[in-house]
Amino acid sequence: MRPTRPTSRAETFPVNTPAAAQVFTTVLTQGPLARLEVARRVGLSPAAVTKAVRPLIEAGYLMEDVDEESRPALGRPANLVRVDGGRALFVGVKVTGDEIIGVLTDLCCRIRVARHVPLADRAPKVVLASIAELVHDLLAAADGLQAPVLGLGVAVSGDVGRGEGTVRYSPFLDWRDVPLAELATTTTGLPVTVDNDVRALTVAEQWFGAGAGLSDFAVVTVGAGIGCGLVVHGRVVAGAHGVAGEIGHVTVDPAGPLCHCGNRGCVEAIAGEAAVVRQIQEATGVQLADAAQALAMAREGVPGAREVYARAGEAIGRGIATVANLLGPERVIISGEGLAAYDLFAEHIRAAFTAAAFGSAAQCDVQTRPLPFEEWARGAAATAIQSFVRADS
Questions:
Q1: Which H or E run includes 112?
Q2: Of the given ranges (41-45, 77-81, 264-268), which has the lowest mean pLDDT?
Q3: Residue 222, helix vs strand vs coil
Q4: What family does the Swiss-Prot or TrEMBL record give for this protein (predicted)?
Q5: Three-state DSSP state, 152
């Protein structure tokens, strides 16, 4: 394994109080903002905001610009505080069953470089070697950007303990109890954050996407599995055992197909890509290579194929309604590679959600966010940014 060069320089975030971290996070996720507006949003005095902002400006993490557009009739224009995205860089890596996707982002989580590497073997040693090689290439790409790389985020599907950095169980990789953060830190020389891939995508939406500024929302991912990330009172929820949000294994049809988890009629057993392919094969008698072929068959109007997608949409809609009924989120964001079939099941998701949502829960704003696969790696980078900024994350 070729050794990976360490970060450009060891560096820690120049704040040591929760208030300062809150001020920076607010500007990062909702800025640029005037100082008075920052004070209003975080519930601090203007003097406290000024105290928090000063060391961040001195260290180059924040900048102030004159807001010419809001110049009052008399007096000076307001100064807007914003994050200097080029001040630091981060690497995000998403590990799938057959490839590793890596991105280099700036501090505002904007992708600067993206790489895809095929994965021939899922053994932890092989995956770690591939991660190290990929990170090495991204660090080389970072050389021309004149900013230090300050963290690495790794996203993996399954039961992942972010606090200890361990992949407890990943069905797609067939991993159990792999101390991934420790191993990746050793092989890359970077501080490493490891998280479940759906929670990582949820962090990216919370800080840099459709959930920015919201206190309570959910991200539902549709694809090989059906995942759900939850934000409650401004924090991504993992639950006591790290599996909060598993709507893929909510039973929506007790007489439905058997799920790999051992239960019947789970959302994933009806709407996951493998389930859709299997059901279309059963309905048509045609052997299918993959989900893309299943989708093409449905769009061609082959009898039985569209009905499978309709049932998938109904299952997803009922799963989303369960989330809305339990938590009352302001917004549910639907994403994932399965959105390629959105035209076939959108109306069924909406109808099932409306029918199953109780009372005002039906007012939840349900949005779709078709995202390229690099966004999963960007989610991993977002967790690294979050860990760098907030020691309690």
A1: strand 111-118
A2: 77-81
A3: strand
A4: Belongs to the ROK (NagC/XylR) family.
A5: strand
